[in-house]
Amino acid sequence: MEGNLKIDISETNRGKEQIIIDRKFKYNFSKLKIDNTKIYRCTEYKTLNKCKSFIILNDNKEVLNYESSHNHHGNEINASKSLIKHKIKDEIKKSLIPSDIKSKRIFDKNEAPNESEYYKTIRGKYFMIFKNSNIIIFQSPFQAKLFMENKHIFADGTFLIAPTNSYQVSITRTYVTELNCFYTTSILLMTKKNKLCYKEVKDHNILNTYYKAISNLCFINIEYIPDIFNKIKISCKRYESTCSHFLNFLDYFEKTFLNIYNIKYWNYYNNIDHITNNASESYNSYLKKLFVKKPSFYKLIYTIQFEESISYYDYQMRIKGIWRKKCRISERVDEINILVEYIIKIWKPN
């Protein structure tokens, strides 16, 4: 039986070697023996299944010992995804610049290039780049399509993975209802932050309260938003000598989000399907785990390429029905919806 085994080499999310047997069962590296043979244990070993299956290989990946009995079914989809991710990652490594080349040899430490051969997806499609002195936005044609076709957009920022030539990285994601999946729609590199405005808000309790109020206008009835905003702005003018930068921010907010854009495009009042930003926050947490320290600009580009390709492949497989659509799990939102429907039913006049 061991001679008929199909052995594929992959790796875990943390870059450690992983063995996949017959495209069904995954084994993570467990121990290096004195004779340099390696022991790999089934990935279900540390779960509730406590699977005892293991395999021992020599340096040539020849099977020395194989305990093939599992107490669970193989997962072909999961195994295939791992192999595809590994293949994509290998292709990116081959196509990108060597990791030991420092970014300062390619562009000034405070400036990213306007054009680069690396500004494209693994499929050869160029990212659409928007760039000015404050921000750089990466968005592939696939991500732009998702951005336009789906109405729910989530955003969150992180400082921990910002490359040396930027201040913060912000991620936007969208929810594809028919697949019950979240997908990244753009990556933003912010090169500056208005520190003076931030300091004003941080050091002033009243301004801090107003800033939080502005941040939560998306959950307020649209009819009340102009009045609330005007009251905040009038109140802030009493502190004009100490909050000039915050007043500039209010002017920007009014011009952009109250005048240029229709409020209904960013307002979430009466929509409780998505009342948190967990979709983007959890993805940022995932990205943080990929980097031991702040990445170089091109290391981040490599990650953007890799993650975009994984999303694209995942989306295509689910749309075509090759991979199952995720089942929606009952959440607190469902409980709220049920409660609202119940109250409406009780109070609805006959």
Biggest β-sheet: strands ordered side by side in the sheet: 1-2-3-4-5-6
Quote the beta fraction.
Answer: 15-25%
SSE pattern? EEEEEEHEEHEEEHHHHHHH
Please summarize the sheet with the most strands: 6 strands, antiparallel
* Low-confidence spans: 96-110
Mean pLDDT: 78
Rg over CA atoms: 25 Å
Q: How would the global form be characterised?
A: elongated
**Quantity of strands, as a count:** 11
Helix content: 25-40%
The helix tally amounts to 9
Could you tell me how far the N terminus lies from the C terminus, measured between alpha carbons in angstroms?
73 Å
Structure classification: alpha+beta
Describe this structure in words.
With 350 residues, this protein is an alpha+beta fold. The chain has helices at 76-95, 141-149, 195-203, 205-215, 225-236, 244-260, 278-288, 297-319, 332-347; strands spanning 7-11, 17-21, 25-32, 38-42, 54-57, 63-67, 128-131, 135-139, 153-158, 168-176, 181-190. A hairpin with a 4-residue loop joins strand 10 and strand 11 (181-190). Helix 1 (76-95) packs antiparallel against helix 8 (297-319) and helix 5 packs antiparallel against helix 6 (244-260). The longest helix is centred in the C-terminal third of the chain and has 23 residues, at 297-319. The protein starts with 6 loop residues before the first strand and ends with a helix.
